[in-house]
Design brief:
It is globular and about 50 Å long. The protein has twelve helices and ten strands. α4 packs across α5 and α5 crosses α7. By secondary structure, it is an alpha+beta fold. The strands form two sheets. The protein has an eight-stranded antiparallel beta sheet with strand order 1-3-4-5-9-8-7-6. Strands 2-10 form a two-stranded antiparallel ribbon. The N terminus is likely disordered. A hairpin with a 2-residue loop joins β6 and β7.
Amino acid sequence: MTRSLDALRAPMDCAELQRSVEAYVDGEFEAREQAEAEAHLAGCERCRALSDGAASLRAAMRARLQEAMGPAAAAGRAPELLRRRVTVALSRQRRPLWRRILSPVPLATAAACAAGVLVVLATHVGSDALVEEAVKKHHRGLPLEVTTASMGAEAIPGWFAGKLDFKPTPPSFQRDGAKVVGARLSHLREFPAAYIKYELPRGQAGLFIVDDPGRHFEANGREVQVGPRTLRVMNSRGYNVAVWRQDEIVYSLVSDLGEDDLFELVRSAQAR
């Protein structure tokens, strides 16, 4: 008897749901993943409690931020521009082809916010925060929204048109064996980002492209000159990360390559 693809597909298990519970709560699943998650939650009390807790935490965080950024908040705790941006992000509705501007808030940040450490929001994010967020997003491996199998690598940059408030221009890695796999919309903290996934001869890489005219991402990490680019190189959660800036655009390349191979990959990059 011929079985359908849906019948052959393995259902979502506890480990998979727990790894991606933040994405589920934030509404980042596609329709099929959403259905699989809901089917699993209907029969798993432990994962349902985890999901409910994450949703409650998100709601509490949003209420806390709304209170802190409201008119009654103590003056001087955050710049007026930042207060306006967070207020707008909190009130914005989900859009079907857009990920929310307000990013998921890690538990550590929730604890800090609950303790009243809102001064963190008033300072620049810092490249270490950018790297940490990029690594977590890349490692999570959320489904790609478009693949080269469906439209070809050269069409990937154009796919972002109208979906972001800037035009991402990904570099073309000329190193042998580096291939674009696909792309999706993402975000790093409160900043919308383009995410492009690459297949390498020995591993994978993910490139996040963020528009940062206000220079919120200060340069941290070790400085390395690779060709015409000045990189900031860091290691997080077992990944090597290279961050560089081109005018107002920040590129964050996350990979499981060694440093020497990472430098060679960046050196081979040519702007489109």
